[in-house]
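User: My instructor asked us to take a sequence, write out its structure as tokens, and then describe one feature of it. I'm not sure where to start. Here is the sequence I was given:
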Amino acid sequence: MCYPTREDSTVPTLRALVLCCTLKPSPAPSSAELLGREVLTALSDHDVDGEVVRVVDHDVRFGVSTDEGDGDQWPTIREKLLAAQVLVIATPIWLGQPSSVCKMVLERLDAELSETDAQGRLRTFGKVAAVAVVGNEDGAHHVTAEVLQALNDVGFTVAASASTYWVGEAMGKTDYADAGPKPDTTGAATKALAANTAHLARLLAGHPYPAS
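Assistant: Let's start with the prediction itself. The structure tokens for your sequence are:
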């Protein structure tokens, strides 16, 4: 099978949404957002554009529906998600766990189990998920496993090597932004994530899952 090259004008530009799940509201620096933006930059090398949304900057309510009402701003974020072919969750590690903001996002995505298209497929089918994790303690593999499993449960597809992470020394003080060049570790993982995720998203865009 022959696939079009990046230079082929018939290759569609895909859309990505990076949900940054830092606990810090803007404009505070966020290592999770930094890594999320690095993933978005890497995706741009594969004709994927998009944006980063820092979830805590929005009034997202706790719940498991698509709209919790009373000013809930999740529906606005959800519109961006539904318009994208790629979803990246960028989260810090706290106590070895995904952040509370990340868990809230996953709870809101539970509502997608009741949302289907005209052919009976979940609206998340055909969308590809990836995760970026930062922290100053161990737990990146655990966080990655939790987040990717949850996203797969609600209909997202996961490519090979769909995660990138950086963790500093346990109980350390160094943030990802201050850790210096990482081209052979986190950088290489980010490139692999972007290449495989974009490839799979483009395949699914051209060949959707069958009707339910």
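For the description part of your assignment, you could build on this observation: The chain has one domain: 14-169+180-205. Try explaining in your own words what that tells you about the chain.
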